[in-house]
Amino acid sequence: MSSLPINPPPRLLMGPGPINADPRVLRAMSAQLVGQYDPAMTSYMNETMALYREVFRTANEQTLLIDGTSRAGIEAAIVSLVAPGDRVLVPIFGRFGHLLREIAERAGAEVHVIEREWGTVFTEAEIERAIVATKPALLAVVHGDTSTTVAQPLEGLGALCEKHGVLFYTDVTASLAGNAFAADELGLDAVTAGLQKCLGGPSGSAPATFSPRAVEVIESRKSIEAGIASSADEIAASTDRRIRSNYFDLAMIFDYWGAKRLNHHTEATSMLYGARECARLLVEEGLANAVERHRLHGTAMLAGVGGLGLTVFGDLEHRMNNVVAVEIPAAVNGDAVRGELLTDFGIEIGTSFGPLHGKVWRIGTMGYNARKDAVLTTLAALEQVLRRHGAPVVGGGGVGAAYDVYQDAGAA
Amino acid sequence: MSSLPINPPPRLLMGPGPINADPRVLRAMSAQLVGQYDPAMTSYMNETMALYREVFRTANEQTLLIDGTSRAGIEAAIVSLVAPGDRVLVPIFGRFGHLLREIAERAGAEVHVIEREWGTVFTEAEIERAIVATKPALLAVVHGDTSTTVAQPLEGLGALCEKHGVLFYTDVTASLAGNAFAADELGLDAVTAGLQKCLGGPSGSAPATFSPRAVEVIESRKSIEAGIASSADEIAASTDRRIRSNYFDLAMIFDYWGAKRLNHHTEATSMLYGARECARLLVEEGLANAVERHRLHGTAMLAGVGGLGLTVFGDLEHRMNNVVAVEIPAAVNGDAVRGELLTDFGIEIGTSFGPLHGKVWRIGTMGYNARKDAVLTTLAALEQVLRRHGAPVVGGGGVGAAYDVYQDAGAA
């Protein structure tokens, strides 16, 4: 077969992720490889750990990358923390809560869930009641669920978990760097993320951090590596609570990233270069500044879609800064509008899943694309496409409302 | 903390992998992202499937990438094909046989192994006796085990598996593109690989292919996704043989790469760009030409280390073209020699694992580095370092013997 060199069309990715990678990240990823035990490589690994401690705001020694997409990080955390039969509590308020449940079930856990309508969040009291009722070993909750655009407040849950002797895990793939977050202050034992949203990188590497308490649980499930154990009996001895995955065995992954440097996988070097650069960009900007940038451009986009006359979906009080869900006007076909935006303007906005499929678009302002020109261009194009599809629209209302936000912020 | 931009030292990577990436692969990976359902992206995915059908020499529809390092591919194959209690037969002749055993054990399989001394391979009769004795559902065997440099002949095993109703799986991470291989001719049901050896890319993406018979087994273990099922009972119904991992659930991954385009993970776009370019390079060169290139430069390296007066380890009849194991002379410290080669000449050669640790170096001639200048430079530098460490060495003997090989081949 004949195929052409990679040369993707230029797109402005304003959906719920992936978004355009920061060009600095792509440049870092184009660097040549070094060996996995080269002093340059192990230094890069150590620096990456230190950088992500800043990004997660944690002192956890075990702060590293899982080689895979965001859900690789989720599965590594759950399969390493949870043994078959362990109880796990998952508050579900969107698609990714379902995913946490499913991964925990496949790990053999006894999973208990509480559910809320998509677009809303739980109160601390609701979560405490469920903890008391189910006595879980692990509370696993998504921070921001991109499927609904809202974020579960995590404040107070750490103290609850401490009080009830529960490990506290959250996935911040959708929220990290776009919304205030501090792992240690929140009392978290495990946090996982991905690069393809507010971190401005490609999917394929999952930064994660684990508290000393989580590390203790994981290390207690350590098994003897088959190539090292002296007999099959010795291996079989520990099977009961043995971590069910080799690839996601965090005890082994810690030994690879740590002083022992025991070979596990061959680190995905180019993805590490990229993940490291994502963190450097954030640390240079300052985490608080990055969150403020996402708040500003997210507010401008929110005002803009309102200014066009569109209705916003979900609990605005708990909306993430970096993505807004917009109800698709009755007059138009949502996918046709998205298609025309992509084909004629090179701009991508997102659809949604489950109960929201076909009902809302999701528009992101994330990472490299949390920028004024990206916001204004998207609103201008959306107005034109809506107009051509016969939707009622306020001419200039979107861009105008966004300009007002920037002017109020002194950013116009 | 302050950290500098990625700027790795220039290295010539002549170990057992990773090796230097082909610059074309790095350029492909530096391309900007597109959305995961962008027509450009789904075309790239389809082209990648078609390209890897050529690389694996298969007609299998289900030929795709697993997002992770090589062992992610291995775990996806095993955990999706093997249900708890299923019998798996693993012939072990090096480190990676132990890995297959361990992954199958963690998947809950009843694993039977046969073992041979590292550096040797099994006869077809030995494998048939074990199949008859253990009646496995799956035969899982590494093709080339980099830890020992030898490759298990796979010819005949497909017919054996067919005859005894066994699924036939091999991992070709170390051997693919450097040694003759044809998945369909060999009667394979599952094959996994990685980019970081003869394919000339970075670690982090695992090409894999699955026969219709394997797909049938995998689809029979399909479970209802938690976010879609109507009740917990419906999910629980299928738990017995349910695939134990979400991330490695090939049934879901097939639906993401296939016509349904059901969202599973967010494809690691930059790694896909790289994996696609690795395959394009091979298809352009021609698979047979690539194997011949690895044979030529591997032969030159083999002759060269012999010409220096060093002793080669392992069964030469079954040696892979792309890596040679060399006994460390008694007079020298193996790690000190490797360190000096790296620090003073910028050249990396490999150490080894398990029973071979400290006894042999492993020198690769793989992918982008299966080149005459890489071979000659490595031999010239190795001679100088050995000399400075007081090892007996034939002056000019390494480079001379390699030149002779090139001259005989008309390549000097």
UniProtKB/TrEMBL annotation, chains A, B:
It comes from the Bacteria. Its cofactor is pyridoxal 5'-phosphate. Pfam families: Aminotran_5 (PF00266). Substrate binds at residue 362. The modification N6-(pyridoxal phosphate)lysine is found at residue 197. The keyword Transferase applies. InterPro entries: Aminotrans_V_dom, PyrdxlP-dep_Trfase, PyrdxlP-dep_Trfase_major, PyrdxlP-dep_Trfase_small, SP_NH2Trfase/AEP_transaminase. Residues 40-204 form the Aminotransferase class V domain. Keywords: Aminotransferase, Pyridoxal phosphate, Transferase. GO terms for molecular function: alanine-glyoxylate transaminase activity; L-serine-pyruvate transaminase activity. GO terms for biological process: glycine biosynthetic process, by transamination of glyoxylate. Belongs to the class-V pyridoxal-phosphate-dependent aminotransferase family. This is Alanine--glyoxylate aminotransferase family protein. It comes from Herbiconiux oxytropis.
